[in-house]
Write a structure and sequence with these properties.
The protein is mostly helical and about 90 residues long. The protein has a domain at about 35-90. The chain has helices spanning about 1-10, 35-50, 60-70, 85-90. About 5% of the residues are buried.
């Protein structure tokens, strides 16, 4: 019902507003969520494929913020049935 009321208020000349980060609070990082997620995604890929020659500045602000973001919002398990990549490998 609320969604339909929101659609009815939309007149075509303005875009409906959406919260940017869910909680309604101010974004506490200096990098965008996309930048943090992109770095974390690359780190996960490098770790999974064992690419040790990829260098990241672990002293930099982007890396520090990404690690803080990961602590605050940990990734979901691989699958509920497979809480880690190791359990998936054992299953196969």
């Amino acid at each position: 019902r609320e969604v339909m009321e929101e659609i009815d208020r939309f007149d075509g000349s303005t875009l409906p507003t959406q919260p940017q980060h869910g909680s309604g609070g101010a974004w506490s990082y200096s990098h965008s969520e996309h930048e943090l997620a992109s770095l974390l995604h690359n780190l996960d890929l490098n770790s999974h494929f064992r690419m040790p020659n990829v260098y990241y500045n672990t002293q930099g602000l982007l890396y520090s913020e990404a690690m803080s973001y990961r602590q605050q919002f940990p990734p979901p398990p691989f699958y509920p049935r497979f809480p880690s990549p190791e359990t998936w490998t054992e299953y196969r």
